[in-house]
Amino acid sequence: MKKNTSHKIEWEIISKYLSGEMSAEEKLTFEKLIDSNPEYAEIVSASNKDLGLIQEVNKVQQLFNVDAAWSAVKSNLSNSKKNNTLKAVPLFSFQNTRTLIQIAAMLVITIGLGLASYHIYTDKLAPYQSISSELYESGKSITLADGSIVNLNGKSELVYEKSFSGNERRVKLTGEAFFTITKNPAKPFIISVGNAEVRVLGTSFNVNASNKHVEVLVETGKVQFSLAKEPNNKIILEKGDFGILQDDLLEKTIQKDENYLSWKTHLMVFKAMSLQDVAKVINRTYQVNIEFNDTAIQNLPITTSFNQTPLTDVLENLCRPHNLSYEKNGNQIILKKELK
C-alpha cells in the first residue's frame, strides 16, 4: 500500500540534524544528501528558520506572563469596588494596549509559523513518497516515475521522489528490494542503504540490508558499490557478482546460494539439504515462520525443487515422503512427526 509517510520521516531526520543529535557519521551522510539536492537543502534551510521563529516566540512568552497580568486586573477591579468607585477600565488604556500588542505579536508569529510549515510540507516535502511492506509480506512492487521497477521483500521500506526532477535519481532503502532500473546515462540512479551507496545507470540487481551488513547481487549490467562516507572506496560489480559491505570493508565474491532470490522468483532448488535449512528458504520465500515439534526431523534430507508453487503444495510435498504433517495458523507453521 503506497502512502505519504515520507513527511514524518524526513522531518524527524531534519529535526535530528538541526538539534545536533546526529552522530558524526550520520551528519556526514546527511550533509552529503543536502549538497547533492538543492531542493532538499532549501527544506533544511526553511526548517532552520522555523526553529529561529520558535525561539522568538519563547522570548515573547517569557516577557509576557498572562497569569500575572490577569491577577493584576482582578486586583485592580477588587480595589475599585472597595473604593466604591464606578470607573470603567478602558479597553485601549495604555497598560492594555501594551498587552494587546504583545498578544498580537504572538499571534502574528504563530500564524507565520503555521504558514511556513504549511509551505514546507505541501510544496517541498510533498514530492517524496514511501512504500513499505510488513514483516510477513513480500512481492509488493512500485513503478517509479522513470519507469524503474522496485520489488520489496518483507519488512522493507523505500522512500523515493515522485518526479526525479534533479540531476540524479536518489532513493533510500531499508530492508531488502530487487531493482530493475531504466537506463538513463545522464541521470544516475543512487540508492542510500545503511552506510552504503549503490550507483547505477541502468541494470537489475538485489540489495539486502536486513542484517547488520549490506549485500548487493547483480543480475544484469554494472553496479558501483561504495561507502556512503567514502565514495572513492568502491567496487564495481558485474553480472553474477556479489558484494558485501561489513564494518566498512567491501568485498566482491560469488553468491553460491541458488535460492538467494527465491523471495522474488519463488523458484527453490534443494539438493540433499536438511529440512531445517529448507525451512529457512521457505520462510524467506513465503514470509512465514516454520518450527518443528521434534528436533529429530530437522536433519531429514530433502532433494526437490519448486517453481511458483503454492505454499500448501510445497508443505504437502515435503511432508508426504517422511510421514510428517503440518499445522498452519496464519504465518506460523509447525511441522510434526506423525505418531505410529
Automatic annotation (TrEMBL):
InterPro entries per the UniProt record, alphabetical: FecR (IPR006860), FecR_C (IPR032508), Ferrdict_sens_TM (IPR012373)
Using the record's annotation, list all stretches that form the Protein FecR C-terminal domain.
268-335
Q: Where are the transmembrane segments?
A: 100-121
Q: Which Gene3D superfamilies did the record assign? A: 2.60.120.1440, 3.55.50.30
Report domain FecR protein positions. Answer: 140-224
Q: GO MF terms on file? A: sigma factor antagonist activity
- Entry annotated with the keyword Aminoacyl-tRNA synthetase: no
Cite the entry's keywords alphabetically.
Answer: Membrane, Transmembrane, Transmembrane helix
* Record PANTHER family: PERIPLASMIC SIGNAL SENSOR AND SIGMA FACTOR ACTIVATOR FECR-RELATED, PROTEIN FECR
Name by which UniProt lists this protein:
FecR protein domain-containing protein
- Origin species: Labilibaculum antarcticum
